[in-house]
């Protein structure tokens, strides 16, 4: 069972109270972009065994979107943080580094 | 004018807990930034109670202010006063980026009373109902089986559950089933 703390209402919400929103920190490319960028935005997703960053929505609670950093292999949650950011905050990265030295995810490490 | 009628006409059930459809309540949804001093002041002035902290409820007389999210409140008041209160709120909020809407007829309130209410709620919602984690005066938006709801613990033996009126019969059936006599779990 996956339990994530909603950073907006402080609730430790169980997975069924949330809705997964896919991979986090995507850069949106629109009609003016190159075909390659647009294809990457639409279709290319990470599918790691280990550290992963995701978007979640507290759908049966405050209704807010937030980000979560977790391990897909062990379901360990490294932390949740605001949706209003384009990259994970330093304290989340530090926590991941402490538990998974040498981790990498896309261009992050 | 037609007579307003509550969703289940005050249906009641006696079991592990007493389940009661609580009749007509005035309910006003307020959207606005709680951290905005103008918003907080306008709401507190009209409601006559202080702004609640995160996941808490502040009550005074027959008015309660329920924390719903960082930018949403639910104001409970007598049914007949809801329309007038919305007008007052709209005036008091002025140019503040905020919204007050009367949702009295779109929601239904259930009251759960008895010593086993924590058992009954814990069977239906993924919420830690231990007395240490969920204390009187707290509110939690969650799901009850398949429908969204908010549960407010008034005191150790009274809880109020607010959900959409369209799912009132489903919620009543759920609560009655979870309160079937002889099904106490007894861990709280």
In words, what does this structure look like?
Chain A: GO terms for molecular function: sarcosine oxidase activity. The complex is a heterodimer of chains A (109) and B (188). Chain A is α+β, with helices and mostly antiparallel strands and 109 residues long. Chain A has one domain (3-99): 2-Layer Sandwich (Folate-binding fold). Helices cover 17% and strands 28% of the residues of chain A. Chain A contains two helices and six strands; from the N terminus they run βββαβββα. Chain A has a four-stranded antiparallel beta sheet with strand order 3-4-5-6. In chain A, strands 1-2 form a two-stranded antiparallel ribbon. In chain A, a hairpin with a 6-residue loop joins β1 (3-5) and β2 (12-14). Chain A is globular. Chain B folds into two domains: 12-23 and 106-178, 2-Layer Sandwich (Gyrase A, domain 2); 26-104, Alpha-Beta Plaits, CATH 3.30.70.1520. The relative contact order of chain B is 0.20. Chain B is of the alpha+beta class and 188 residues long. A six-stranded antiparallel beta sheet of chain B has the order 1-2-8-11-10-9, with helices on one face. A five-stranded antiparallel beta sheet of chain B has the order 4-5-6-3-7, with helices on one face. The longest helix of chain B is centred in the middle third of the chain and has 12 residues, at 82-93.
Compact summary:
The complex is a heterodimer of chains A (109) and B (188). Helices cover 17% and strands 28% of the residues of chain A. By secondary structure, chain A is of the alpha+beta class.
